[in-house]
Amino acid sequence: MVGSPKNGSEYSVSVNLTAGLASGLTEAIVIVTPAEVCKIRMQSQYNSLMDPAQLARRKYTNVIQTAITITREEGIGALYK
Protein backbone atom coordinates (compact mmCIF):
# COMPACT_ATOMS: atom_id res chain seq x y z
CA MET A 1 0.00 0.00 0.00
CA VAL A 2 1.25 3.47 -0.83
CA GLY A 3 2.38 5.41 2.22
CA SER A 4 1.85 2.53 4.63
CA PRO A 5 3.67 2.85 7.94
CA LYS A 6 6.80 0.81 8.49
CA ASN A 7 7.14 -1.62 11.40
CA GLY A 8 3.61 -1.00 12.70
CA SER A 9 4.26 2.67 13.51
CA GLU A 10 1.72 5.40 12.88
CA TYR A 11 1.51 7.56 9.78
CA SER A 12 3.45 10.80 9.83
CA VAL A 13 1.76 14.13 10.46
CA SER A 14 2.25 15.19 6.84
CA VAL A 15 0.54 12.04 5.54
CA ASN A 16 -2.40 12.53 7.92
CA LEU A 17 -2.65 16.22 7.00
CA THR A 18 -2.58 15.50 3.27
CA ALA A 19 -5.18 12.74 3.55
CA GLY A 20 -7.50 14.94 5.61
CA LEU A 21 -7.12 17.85 3.23
CA ALA A 22 -7.79 15.67 0.18
CA SER A 23 -10.88 14.06 1.72
CA GLY A 24 -12.27 17.42 2.87
CA LEU A 25 -11.82 19.02 -0.53
CA THR A 26 -13.38 16.04 -2.28
CA GLU A 27 -16.42 16.11 -0.01
CA ALA A 28 -16.87 19.87 -0.40
CA ILE A 29 -16.62 19.78 -4.19
CA VAL A 30 -18.52 16.57 -4.95
CA ILE A 31 -21.29 16.58 -2.35
CA VAL A 32 -21.71 19.77 -0.35
CA THR A 33 -21.69 22.39 -3.12
CA PRO A 34 -24.35 20.72 -5.34
CA ALA A 35 -26.50 19.97 -2.28
CA GLU A 36 -26.32 23.62 -1.19
CA VAL A 37 -27.33 24.80 -4.67
CA CYS A 38 -30.33 22.45 -4.62
CA LYS A 39 -31.30 23.54 -1.10
CA ILE A 40 -31.15 27.22 -2.05
CA ARG A 41 -33.22 26.66 -5.20
CA MET A 42 -35.88 24.82 -3.20
CA GLN A 43 -35.95 27.47 -0.46
CA SER A 44 -36.20 30.36 -2.91
CA GLN A 45 -39.00 28.56 -4.72
CA TYR A 46 -41.11 28.50 -1.54
CA ASN A 47 -40.49 32.18 -0.88
CA SER A 48 -41.86 33.05 -4.31
CA LEU A 49 -44.91 30.74 -4.03
CA MET A 50 -47.16 32.79 -1.82
CA ASP A 51 -50.32 31.58 -3.58
CA PRO A 52 -51.39 28.07 -2.40
CA ALA A 53 -52.53 27.20 -5.94
CA GLN A 54 -48.96 27.65 -7.17
CA LEU A 55 -47.68 25.23 -4.54
CA ALA A 56 -49.26 22.34 -6.44
CA ARG A 57 -47.27 23.30 -9.55
CA ARG A 58 -43.88 23.74 -7.91
CA LYS A 59 -40.82 23.05 -10.02
CA TYR A 60 -38.62 21.38 -7.39
CA THR A 61 -39.92 18.67 -5.06
CA ASN A 62 -36.84 17.07 -3.45
CA VAL A 63 -33.05 17.33 -3.59
CA ILE A 64 -32.50 14.51 -6.11
CA GLN A 65 -35.24 15.74 -8.44
CA THR A 66 -33.88 19.28 -8.11
CA ALA A 67 -30.35 18.17 -9.06
CA ILE A 68 -31.67 16.25 -12.07
CA THR A 69 -33.80 19.19 -13.22
CA ILE A 70 -30.94 21.68 -12.87
CA THR A 71 -28.58 19.37 -14.75
CA ARG A 72 -31.06 18.78 -17.59
CA GLU A 73 -32.00 22.44 -17.98
CA GLU A 74 -28.71 24.22 -17.28
CA GLY A 75 -25.96 21.60 -17.43
CA ILE A 76 -23.78 20.05 -14.74
CA GLY A 77 -21.91 23.32 -14.19
CA ALA A 78 -25.02 24.94 -12.76
CA LEU A 79 -24.67 22.76 -9.65
CA TYR A 80 -21.40 24.55 -8.89
CA LYS A 81 -22.56 28.19 -9.19
What does this protein look like?
The chain has a domain at 33-81. Helix content is 64%, strand content 0%. It contains three helices and no strands. The protein has helices spanning 13-48, 52-55, 63-74. Helix 1 (13-48) crosses helix 3. The longest helix has 36 residues, at 13-48. It is rod-shaped and about 70 Å long. 4% of the residues are buried.
Number of helices: 3
Helical proportion? Answer: 55-70%
Strand content range: under 5%
* Total beta-strand segments: 0
Mean pLDDT: 86
Shape verdict: rod-shaped
Radius of gyration: 20 Å
The largest β sheet comes out as: none
Q: Could you tell me how far the N terminus lies from the C terminus, measured between alpha carbons in angstroms?
A: 37 Å
Assembly state: single chain
Order of helices and strands: HHH
Low-confidence stretches: none
Which structural class do you get from the secondary structure elements? mainly alpha
What does this entry show, briefly?
The protein is mostly helical. The chain is 64% helix and 0% strand.
Fold topology:
Elements: H1 13-48, H2 52-55, H3 63-74
Helix pairs in contact: 1-3
Descriptors:
single chain, 81 residues, mainly alpha
